[in-house]
């Protein structure tokens, strides 16, 4: 693999709550626990243990990542906090997994790279 593009944004996805008395056994196939942190740029999120992000939850996450990459505001697509901990930022949003077990906080960080499409990198 040869990464040639310096990404515009980096993303952190933190597990901030787990229903069922903070136990994921028999509820979360991925085994996510409070304190797990996933990071990525354009690649798939990986946590501090080298394990990948839940495939089902990635269906929710991907449109949010694209919203940020497109210059959008996460507050305008439901940037709310089910547990009351979202910071007041267009680059932060909490969401619950499709199974209703794990609550994640997505935080985007501007890295300084140019936008892929408007920066002239995307050419046919």
Describe this structure in words.
- The structure is a single chain.
- This protein is α+β, with helices and mostly antiparallel strands and 124 residues long.
- It has one domain (9-110).
- It has two helices and five strands; from the N terminus they run βαββαββ.
- It has helices at 19-22, 55-69; strands at residues 9-18, 37-40, 46-47, 92-96, 102-110.
SSE topology:
Layout: E1 9-18, H1 19-22, E2 37-40, E3 46-47, H2 55-69, E4 92-96, E5 102-110
Antiparallel strand pairs: 1-2, 1-5, 2-3, 4-5
Descriptive terms for the model:
124 residues; 2 helices; 5 strands; 15% helix
Brief characterization of the structure:
By secondary structure, this protein is α+β, with helices and mostly antiparallel strands. It is 15% helix and 24% strand. It has one domain.
**Major pleated sheet:** 5 strands, antiparallel
Q: Give the DSSP E fraction (strand runs of 2 or more residues).
A: 15-25%
Structural class: alpha+beta
Mean pLDDT across residues? 88
The largest beta-sheet arranges its strands as: 3-2-1-5-4
Please estimate the helix content: 10-25%
> What sort of overall outline do the alpha carbons produce when their principal axes are compared?
globular
